[in-house]
Amino acid sequence: MEQKIRTKFEELFGNEGKIKTYFAPGRVNLIGEHTDYNGGHVFPCALTMGTYAVARKREDNKLRLYSMNFEELGVLESTIDELGYKKEEDWINYPKSMIWVMKEEGFNIDTGFDILYNGTIPNGAGLSSSASIEVLTGFVLKDMFNLDVDMTKLALLGQKAENKYIGVNCGIMDQFIIANGKKDCATFLDTSNLNFEYAPVKLEDAKIVIMNTNKKRGLGDSKYNERRAECEKALEELQTKLNIKSLGELTEEEFENNKHLIKDENRQKRAKHAVYENQRTIKAVNALKDNKIDLLGELMVASHNSLRDDYEVTGIELDTLVAESLKQEGVIGARMTGAGFGGCAVSIVKSDKVEDFIKNVGNAYKEKIGYDADFYAVEIGNGPTIL
Length: 387
Ligand code: GLA
Hints:
By secondary structure, this protein is α+β, with helices and mostly antiparallel strands. The chain has a domain at 2-199: Ribosomal Protein S5, domain 2 (2-Layer Sandwich), CATH 3.30.230. It has eleven helices and 13 strands.
């Protein structure tokens, strides 16, 4: 991979000067969905799939960007002084968002650069291809301009780029895990204060298998921002009586005793999911630590059901993948992962059953939905690196 992208870079931009290659992962969340903007916990892992970049600093203010995933768009040019959002510029808005945010924050980025990207995560599949590009771009800038910025700050800047520039009010999970991922570990993150710990994912004779619905979606036009607003409103209603800062502070019991304060049935369901999902995430981490893999699987299924029935972000494609998964021999658990509304589901499957699992779930999905799903047996990788 490194050789291939370097050759392409040199073909496009020449081979003079100091050229460096970088990588940032994608992510999959094991449990803790739609909790990260509710002050709750999440439990994601970085993947060995991700985004590569080859970059070289320039003397002038020009930016030349190229993606091997969008070769038809060719080399796109801009400057570090013209960083406004342009819908028609497509994926370029993601790197630009990060340069924009870092300049906004006062980091000294005083020249342009040439950069080539190549992602091995499917675009728009809910494995955080966009957060991967954001954090990767921040990581390249940190290295290229010797910026004094730590990985958690880079994650926060990535989130800010997404919120203020792209227009998606996402939480911190994706950028945080991409910036701080650790091989063979999931990261148990408390989004209310960004305290985190690594938990080794020891599945012994089982593997993580990601299932892609191949149903494309963009978070911007999905109901993501609407769900977030519903949770904020529900919190305000609870705050008329409770002294809390987020839904993540509540136990299931406290929620049940106070849910009547939320005056709309849908909002009550959204808040219920946020509260119960947070508690499930805490239980899931303990289950993994105690080697109770079956319990982890049960909690994943409960998470999916709550996302389907109370949060209402699954849809026929994700529900079909999960329902068909649960019929297979050797399956420990399955659930949608990421924002939902299409994208991917994640399952834990006994290693010797993975092949049959993929065949059977794939056939059933195609029969019901009419097109293929994709499957990836994945490994948990590290955060950003210079190669
Ligand atoms: C997207 C967002 C995250 C998080 C998940 C849902 O991936 O970017 O911040 O809210 O959805 O858990």
